[in-house]
C-alpha cells in the first residue's frame, strides 16, 4: 500500500447519495480501500432501552462519538489497525462485534456530518459534499428506511419533520462551506469519472503522494524526533 493513506470525506444530507458516490469513486481505483461510515460512530446507547433509543435525535452532532473517530483515523494514518464498531439501524445501537480495519491506500469517511469536526476536516485530503434536493432525498429515505431499516412510513415522516430536516438545516447544510467540491445529485457521471481519475493519480500516479514504506517510516521518525525535546 501507499503511505500515508489518501483520505476523502463525503458529507451531505440523508439520501443524497453519499454511499453510492463513495462506492463508485473507489471501486476501480485500488483493492486497498477502507470505507468508514460515520454511522458506525453513533454513540453506544446500551444504557437506554429500545423505546428510549427510538426517541434519540440521530442528526445532532452530539449523537456521534467524535473522539473515537479521531483516534481511529489518527491510528490508521500512522500505519496502525483499529477495531471499528458496526451499527444496527433496526435496534438503534452498535452491534456486539467490531471489525478489524487495516490501513489502506484510500480511506473514505462518509456520513451526514463527515465535514463537521474541525480536527477530522484537517485529516482529510479531499472534502466532498453531495447535494441533492430535499424532496428527492426524503423519497429515497422513505423507501430505504421501510425496506432496509425496518421502519414504518408514519415513523419515517415524524422523524423527518421533528429532527432530520431541522438538523439538516442547522448543522449539515452549513458544512458545505468546508467542501473542496460540491457534487450535484450524487452519482453524476462526470463528477464520478473526475474523482476516480483523481484517486488513481493520488495512489498510482507520478508525483503522487505514494511513499514506499521505508520513506514513510523515516518521515514519521523524523517528525517524532522533531517533536521530542532534547534531553538536558
Ligand atoms: N444519482 C442517483 N440517482 C438515482 N438514485 C440514486 C442516486 N444516488 C443514489 N441513489 C439511490 O438513493 C438511495 C440513497 O442513496 P445512498 O447513496 O444510500 O445515500 P446516502 O448514503 O447519502 O444516504 C439508494 O437507494 C441509491 O441507490
Ligand atoms: N438509529 C438511527 C441512526 C441514524 N438514523 C438516521 O440515519 C441517517 C444517516 O444515514 P444516511 O445513510 O441517511 O446518511 C440520519 O439522518 C439519521 O436520522 C436513524 O434513522 N436511526
TrEMBL record:
Cellular component per GO, a single term: cytoplasm
Extent of Basic and acidic residues compositional bias: 206-225
UniProt-annotated binding residues for ATP: 12-19
One annotated GO biological process: CTP salvage
Recorded catalytic activity of this chain's protein: cytidine + ATP = CMP + ADP + H(+); uridine + ATP = UMP + ADP + H(+)
Annotated pathway: Pyrimidine metabolism; UMP biosynthesis via salvage pathway; UMP from uridine: step 1/1; Pyrimidine metabolism; CTP biosynthesis via salvage pathway; CTP from cytidine: step 1/3
Family: Belongs to the uridine kinase family.
Name this protein carries in UniProt: Uridine kinase
Gene: udk
Amino acid at each position: 500500500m501507499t503511505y500515508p493513506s489518501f483520505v476523502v470525506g463525503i458529507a451531505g444530507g440523508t439520501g443524497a447519495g453519499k454511499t453510492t458516490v463513495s462506492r463508485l469513486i473507489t471501486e476501480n481505483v485500488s483493492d486497498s480501500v477502507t470505507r468508514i461510515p460515520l454511522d458506525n460512530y453513533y454513540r453506544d446507547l446500551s444504557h437506554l432501552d429500545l423505546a428510549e433509543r427510538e426517541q434519540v435525535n440521530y442528526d445532532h452532532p452530539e449523537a456521534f462519538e467524535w473522539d473515537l473517530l479521531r483516534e481511529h483515523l489518527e491510528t490508521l494514518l500512522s500505519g496502525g489497525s483499529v477495531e471499528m464498531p458496526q451499527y444496527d439501524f433496526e435496534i438503534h445501537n452498535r452491534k456486539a462485534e467490531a471489525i478489524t480495519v487495516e490501513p489502506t491506500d484510500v480511506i473514505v469517511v462518509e456520513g451526514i456530518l463527515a465535514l463537521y469536526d474541525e480536527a477530522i476536516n484537517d485529516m482529510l485530503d479531499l472534502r466532498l459534499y453531495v447535494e441533492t434536493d430535499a424532496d428527492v432525498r426524503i423519497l429515497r429515505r422513505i423507501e430505504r428506511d421501510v425496506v432496509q431499516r425496518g421502519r414504518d412510513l408514519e415513523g419515517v415522516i415524524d422523524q423527518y419533520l421533528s429532527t432530520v430536516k431541522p438538523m439538516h438545516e442547522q448543522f449539515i447544510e452549513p458544512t458545505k462551506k468546508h467542501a473542496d467540491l460540491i457534487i450535484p445529485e450524487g452519482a453524476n457521471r462526470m463528477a464520478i469519472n473526475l474523482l476516480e481519475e483523481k484517486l488513481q493519480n493520488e495512489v498510482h500516479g507520478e508525483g503522487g503522494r505514494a511513499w514506499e514504506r521505508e520513506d514513510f517510516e523515516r518521515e514519521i521518525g523524523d517528525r517524532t524526533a522533531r517533536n521530542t525535546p532534547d534531553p538536558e
